[in-house]
Amino acid sequence: MTKRTALILFALTMILPFATPRRAEAVTWDTLTTYYAGSCTNLSYNGYKWRECDGTLSQDGTLSGSWRCDDTYDCVTGDFTYYWYERCNNSWVHRYTVSGWGNNRMPTANDCQCT
Questions:
Q1: Residue 13 lies in a domain
Q2: Which of 33, 35, 78, 101 is the most buried (most CB within 10 A)?
Q3: Domain of 45?
């Protein structure tokens, strides 16, 4: 092996560990965002996007509507929290939060301020 070849091999071993892509790491929260259309007392499903704890992404349908719910699951503790937003003047406005598995609820007339 020539001195030049050894130098090139050494340089490659120093560069390659920094140039190779890293494996995607798992996220802390699993988030399922569901979109709904209609008035708050008569909502219909539009679509969803889902980011799982292992970082996998999926989606279906239309990712817009008059309401959305972000269902979050803590990948470490297993806690569920639901965040409800209403679309007002082209912005998402937080309306209420529900904690705990199975405690989620659809919006009521008291929750509506834009639809």
A1: no
A2: 35
A3: 29-99
